[in-house]
Amino acid sequence: MTTISIIGGSGYGGGELLRLLLAHPHVEVKQVTSRSRMSEYAYQTHPNLRKRTQLKFSDPAALEPVDILFLAQPHGQAQHHIDEYAKLAPKIIDLAADFRLRDAEMYEKWYGEKHAAPEWLSKFVYGLPELHRAEIAAANYVSGVGCNATASNLALLPLVKADLIDLSAPVIIEIKVGSSEGGAEGNSGSLHAERANVIRTFSAFGHRHTAEVIQEMGVKDISLTMTAVDLVRGVLATAHAKVKQGVVIKDLWKAYRAAANENPFVRVVKEQRGIYRVPEPKILAGSNYADLGFELDESSGHIVSMCAIDNLMKGASGSAVQCMNLMMGWEETVGLEFAGLHPI
Amino acid sequence: MNAVSCPECEAQIELDAGTDAGEIIVCPDCGVDLEVTSIDPAAVQLAPMEQEDWGE
C-alpha cells in the first residue's frame, strides 16, 4: 500500500480528501494533522466518517515520512514550509493556492504579497488533469485548483482547444457558488441568518481565481463575477463569449464531444427531454464529474458555455485524488467512481 | 448495419437491424428525435419535439 498523510485535515477540503482516501484501494492514510483539533477523532469534525476511521488529528510537528503528502491548509501556509515538507515525501499534492501560478509577479499581482518560495513555483504542475494529464503523470509536485477557476477553465476548454473563440471580444464568466467555498472557518457573513436564501454578487471583478483562468486558457480579456447562492456544495460557471465567424452549432458539438471523449470525468449535458437538460451542480454533490453544456446564437455568434461541478470534488479534493492516480500510474478514475445522488 | 449522421450534432449513429422507415430514434449524443426517412440508403431527419416550458 502507498502511504499518505494529510496536513491540515480539519477543513472541508481536508475532510473530503480523507473521505476519498479512506475508500481508495491503493493507499493507507497514516496521519491527518490539525493544530486546532489535535488529539480529537477526525470523525468528530467530519461526522460522515464515523465508523470509517479511528484516526485522530495529530501534531504537524510529529509527521512521519510517507510516499505522498497532501497539503490541505489555508492558503499562504505551504509556501513557508515547503522545504520541510519535501523532506517528508517524494510526492506532494497541495490543495491551496500557494503553487498554482507559474509566475511570481502574477502571484504578487493577484494575491497582493510576494511569494515566500518563488523558486518552487516552476516545480509544480497545475493540478487539473483535463489540462495537464501527461505533465501530472510525470510530476512529483502538483498544485491544487481553484474551484471557480476549474468551472471556468472547463467551460472554456472545448472552445479554446478547438480555437473557436474570437479573442478580440471579452469573455465574461458569471459564477454561482455554494457556501462551502468559504471554508470551515465561519464569520458573521456565514451565519445562517445572513447566508440562507442569499443571492449576492460578492465579487464583481478581481477574484483571485481569475489568474488561473488567464494562465491556463491564455485569454487576456476576461472577467469572473461571483454570486453566492443558497447551496452548500456546487459551482455553476456560465461563460459568455463570441465565436469566430462561420462557427456553427455542429462545430461546437464536435469540440465538446472531443472534450468528453478525452476526459473520463467530463460529460456533455445538452438534452432534449427530461428535467435536467443543462448542467446543474445539484446532482453532482459528492461526484467528480464536470458537466458541460452550451447554446449558440448563430446570428450574433454569442455563445453561452456552462460548467457545473461540486466545488469540493472536481474543484478541489476530487481533482487532487485524480492527480494522485495519474502520478502513481493507477487508473485515473479509481476511488472517484461515486455517481452522485438523484433525487437530492 | 446502416450508419447515419445526426443532422443536429453530426454524431454517427448505427441503425439497429430491423429498423423501419418512419420509426423515431433518439440521437445518443444530443438527444434529438430523428425520423428514419429511408433504410436503403439510410437517412434521417429531425422530428418535431416538445420544447421545455418552466412557466417562468
Explain the overall architecture.
The complex is a heterodimer of chains A (344) and B (56). Chain A is an alpha/beta fold and 344 residues long. Chain A folds into two domains: 123 residues, Rossmann fold (3-Layer(aba) Sandwich); 165 residues, Dihydrodipicolinate Reductase, domain 2 (2-Layer Sandwich). Helices cover 29% and strands 20% of the residues of chain A. Chain A contains ten helices and 13 strands. Chain A starts with a strand and ends in a 16-residue tail after the last helix. With 56 residues, chain B is mainly β. Chain B starts with a strand and ends in a 10-residue tail after the last strand. Chains A and B meet through helix 9 of A and loops of B.
Secondary structure topology:
The complex is a heterodimer of chains A (344) and B (56).
Chain A: E1 2-7, H1 12-22, E2 27-33, H2 42-45, E3 57-58, E4 68-71, H3 78-88, E5 91-94, H4 104-111, H5 129-137, E6 141-142, H6 147-161, E7 171-177, H7 192-195, E8 200-203, H8 210-217, E9 222-228, E10 235-242, H9 249-262, E11 266-268, E12 290-297, E13 302-309, H10 313-328
Parallel strand pairs in A: 1-2, 1-4, 2-3, 4-5, 5-6, 7-9, 11-12
Antiparallel strand pairs in A: 7-10, 8-9, 10-13, 12-13
Chain B: E1 2-5, E2 12-15, E3 24-26, E4 33-39, E5 42-46
**How does the major sheet of chain B shape up?**
3 strands, antiparallel
Count of separate structural domains of chain A: 2
* Structural class determined from secondary elements of chain A: alpha/beta
Major sheet characteristics of chain A = 7 strands, mixed
Rg of chain A, Å, rounded? 20 Å
What is the helix/strand order of chain B?
A: EEEEE
